[in-house]
Model the fold of this input.
Amino acid sequence: MSMGDEYFEQMFANSDDPWAMRKRWYERRKRALLLACLPREHYPAIFEPGCANGETSLVLAPRCDYLLCCDTAPAAVQLTRGRLADVNHAQVRQWRLPQDWPNERFDLIVLNELCYYLDPNDLGELIERAGQSLKPSGHLLACHWLAPIEGCSFDGAAVHQRLDEGLGLCSLLRHEEPDFILQVWSRDGVSVAQHEGLR
Done:
């Protein structure tokens, strides 16, 4: 079974930053790496499911014309809306994944520290929906903690193996450290240099 809403509601009941995304250098550095690994400088439309308290949402917003974020926890949605209050091109929804999913198609989907909270069936459905939601030149970025998480069906390595197998997309980038793994997949396989006509 996927992690229940009560788990996330309890996390945010105790703190507005339950994963210390603002204060930990580990989290700030990982966010900077995530941004640096994006193959495009700018995206027309980005979808960030599982936005938590909006720390990553805030740095993704300047990189796009339209940002859609969602989270299952009401407190997370409220916090992200507060962080993006001055960003006119951003929307934040309270959705439970993968049952709730947008009808739009996106140039970038960011799965950041999300997928191990899903059970095998829900993860499979999320991967299918994400693949269907990518535009022809779209990218999918995933970043996950590698250590086991109590109560979760997968660790980060298993999540990325499932993504590799299920997406059927070209791998553009894989960055792995002892703590986390970050990957970018592409539908068209065009590299950064190729996109700018250098190859």
Notes: The first strand starts at residue 43 and ends at 49. The mean pLDDT is 94. Residues 5-195 form a domain with the Rossmann fold fold (CATH 3.40.50.150).
